Amino acid sequence: MKKFAFIFSALLLLASCSKGYKVTVTFPDESTNGETAFLTNYDTGDTLLSATVENQACTFEGAANKGFFARLLVGGSRYGFIVEPGEVKLNIAEGTAISPLNDKMTAWSKKMQEIADDTTITEAESDARYAEGLKKFYEENKDNAIGPWAFSNYLMYKDFTEADIDALLKSAPAEYAQLKRVEKAKKAAHQITVTAVGKKFTDFEVPVGDGTMQKLSDHVGKGKVVVVDFWAS
């Protein structure tokens, strides 16, 4: 498992009412002064807010009806985080984010780092333990902003079929099925299924030198072995 060090912050808002949040970001030096910092949605990649860094700091304020895992993009760097009602303090120099859900994320990530640092187990065992850690973390946080992040990342660490993912979604909150990263995982699982050994090839066509188009089916299925070489200059 790759070692990771990331900053978390979170926005968790009650569905029944809109609560405000304030994220204060502080930077280690003046190098980012004048830069535009972007608050983005981790799942969709959409930019939600932007702010100019002044005096080694910037602030984001807003409201939402639901929590989301986010990313801060600034000066070519990015930092993962969730936002929750109230104040979140994100210190880039110290690599800390302070708020109730951030504290929970920090404690969990430390446990996962211990697994990554354990030299007595194989990389495969490390990956398996991290995947189980994600699953448990998701199950414990289904109804807050941590859940969607843990769930979508869990799907990345296991070789799930489309049926496997659908089965997991049955016990998950309904909105999980709409997550872009879950949709991406299902598409990847579908491609693995249709390209598995023994499955019929997926036909495609490409232009050739004389300007005409040729299909794979023009050559495959004629009683001979066909070798397809994919390359790029």
Topology:
Layout: E1 19-26, E2 36-41, E3 47-52, E4 57-64, E5 69-74, E6 77-82, E7 86-91, E8 96-98, H1 100-117, H2 123-140, H3 146-156, H4 162-170, H5 180-194, E9 205-207, E10 213-215
Parallel strand pairs: 1-7
Antiparallel strand pairs: 1-4, 2-3, 2-5, 5-6, 7-8, 9-10
Helix pairs in contact: 1-2, 2-3
Describe, in short, the structure shown.
By secondary structure, the protein is α+β, with helices and mostly antiparallel strands. The protein has helices at 100-117, 123-140, 146-156, 162-170, 180-194, and strands at residues 19-26, 36-41, 47-52, 57-64, 69-74, 77-82, 86-91, 96-98, 205-207, 213-215. Mean pLDDT is 87; it is low at 1-17.
How does this model look, in words?
The chain has 233 residues and is α+β, with helices and mostly antiparallel strands. Helices cover 30% and strands 24% of the residues. It is built from 5 helices and 10 strands; from the N terminus they run ββββββββαααααββ. Strands 4-1-7-8 form a 4-stranded mixed sheet. A 4-stranded antiparallel sheet has the order 3-2-5-6. β2 and β3 (47-52) form a beta hairpin. α1 packs antiparallel against α2 and α2 (123-140) packs antiparallel against α3. The radius of gyration is 22 Å and the shape is globular.
